[in-house]
Write a structure and sequence with these properties.
The N and C termini lie far apart (115 Å). 57% of the residues lie in helices and 9% in strands. The strands form two sheets. The protein has a four-stranded antiparallel β-sheet, with no helix packed on it. The protein has helices at 18-25, 53-58, 73-84, 90-100, 109-119, 125-174, 184-199, 203-216, 224-234, 242-255; strands at 3-6, 12-14, 29-32, 38-40, 221-223, 259-262, 265-268. It contains ten helices and seven strands. Strand 3 and strand 4 form a beta hairpin. It is an alpha+beta fold and 270 residues long.
Length: 270
């Protein structure tokens, strides 16, 4: 609740006490106790809200949040009344200005009629018409304000949904899927596996494979070219291991006493 101080005598006043005090003190202005701003004439009526206690006492040290403070319904209603006289018909403008200086004006029609009848002394058939006109005008302004707020919220919601859809679409386009993976990946994996096997081929393995292959061959003999292919197949090596196997077979033919070469054939001795 906004509280004022008389600039003439210094007395503290609630908003609904300013008019009565002004007739008695003849002061030219009143100042808000929170923000220290002076108001002349009827300007104080539009002053419905002020700084918070943190802003008042911390001053330059105050670091307020970026978010706007949400008004409670009564504060919003008081502000609506304070601004209503500028768009109101001439017959109710003065009454709305007086109403704006009061605190806790009811927001429901029945309580509003009783409050204005007692506070503004609006009784009788003609006064009742003024009260109805004041309520209708305030209700119309409130409906417009709520409709504008709904539209703003809908627009913000629409923008947020569009932004989320755009972000999801962008994420989906960047994320690799199994269907988009190149088909050569499987071949590459197979090649990598074969290369690893080729690196593990040793002379001992080649010698053992040569003996097994020749034992199964007719007369325990094979052509050298066929032996190379059979050993490569037996060791399950890829094309990259062909050169290494050829080299190791050549070494075994020189070093081995049980395997000899006769022309194009390789023979395993018993």
């Amino acid at each position: 609740m906004v509280v004022f101080s008389c600039d003439g005598c210094g007395e503290m006043l609630k908003k609904n006490q300013v008019d009565t005090h002004a007739t008695r003190c003849r002061c030219e202005s009143v100042s808000c106790m929170d923000c220290s701003v002076s108001f002349y004439g009827d300007d104080f009526r539009a002053h419905t809200s002020c700084v918070t206690e943190a802003e008042r006492y911390e001053k330059s040290v105050y670091r307020g949040g970026n978010k706007k403070t949400k008004r409670n319904p009564q504060e919003a209603w008081n502000e609506l009344i304070a601004n209503a006289s500028s768009t109101a018909p001439a017959c109710i403008q003065s009454h709305l200005k007086m109403l704006a200086s009061l605190d806790n004006v009811p927001r429901k029609p029945k309580q509003f009629r009783n409050f204005t009848a007692n506070s503004l002394n609006l009784r009788g058939r003609q006064a009742n018409g003024i009260v109805v006109a004041m309520w209708d005008h305030l209700s119309m302004l409130r409906d417009k304000e709520q409709e504008a707020k709904r539209k703003e919220e809908d627009e913000q919601r629409r923008i947020k949904e569009e932004r989320e859809r755009a972000e999801n679409k962008h994420s989906e386009s960047e994320a690799p899927t199994k269907a988009q993976e190149p088909p050569e990946n499987d071949e590459k994996k197979s090649t990598d596996c074969n290369d690893a096997k080729d690196l593990n081929v040793s002379s001992k393995k080649v010698k053992k494979a040569m003996k097994k292959v020749l034992k199964k061959a007719p007369a325990r003999s094979m052509k050298l070219k066929a032996l190379r292919k059979a050993v490569q197949k037996h060791l399950d090596c890829g094309d990259s291991g062909r050169v290494k196997i050829k080299k190791l077979i050549g070494q075994e033919l020189v070093d081995s006493k049980k395997i000899r070469v006769e022309g194009k054939f390789v023979i395993l001795q018993v």
